[in-house]
Structure formats: structure tokens, C-alpha cells
What does this fold into?
Amino acid sequence: MVPNAEIIERLTDSAFQERGVGLLITGGPRDERSKMASMVLREFVNAGHNCLAVTPFELAAAYHFGQSHRLRGGDVLLIKDLGRLSQAEKDAIEVIQPCFGVTGILETILDQRRGNAATTLITTEHDLQELAAQFSPRLANLVGAVGFSIQLDSYSEESHADRL
It folds into this structure.
């Protein structure tokens, strides 16, 4: 188990930031995932990086309405709560689904950011198998390839880090 402080230290190292490697934060309560992602994002901002934080729905809407350059080109992109939608977002997706496919847009942006070595942070309560079932196996593979992952333990301040 790796303490949160050590994870933050490793993620905010300038050598790590320059590589464009991503991070997947899973497990634990939503507020713990958000707290970890916010701490990491704050360090990227403090280091002078251009950062953007969006929900999957906001990402798909920005892409659809001509903002794909912001999603592909920013130094750091945080996709918050992948797999979780508010009721309003679910209702909106039902209406706009014929216009654009959310899964396809997520796959495109993740694939492009990976190709550009752009840092991507993702938080989700789901494991990769659940993401594959909810979205697609390709999306789960792209999410799993972000660089390394952290499984938060909801019972302590410790985290399980993979590929640090």
C-alpha cells in the first residue's frame, strides 16, 4: 500500500508530467476519488500546466460542439466519474444519442491524447470489466492503458498503486 502523499509526490514530479502518462483512480467513495484527483490536478496547475476537468457528458458535448481541440490539446485532462451520470445527463443523452455516440467520442479523445502523450486522469467507481460492459471493451482497454492506476481503499488513507 502506498500512502496518498507518496502518490501525489510521484505524480507531480516534473519528469512524470513531461511524459504525458495518465492515471486511473478507482474504488473508494466518490469524494475520496475526487479529492485525490483534485490534489493531483492542483499540482499540475501549480506547475504551470493547462488543465481541464470534465464529466463524460461534458466531454462528449464539447467534442460535438466544436471544442475537440481543447480536449485533445490541453496539457492535462481530468475525466471525472466515468460511468456515472446525473439524471439530467441521462435524460439529455436519451434525446441526443442519435446525434452523437458518447462512447465513440470518449474512445476518440482517449486514443488521440494517448497518441499525443497528453496526460489524462480518470476517476470512476467501476472496474475495467464494468466499464467494458457499460461502454465498450475498446474504451475499457484505452482507460486501462492510461499509464497506471490507483485503487482507493474506502476504509483507510492508504491506496493500492499499480505500475507506479
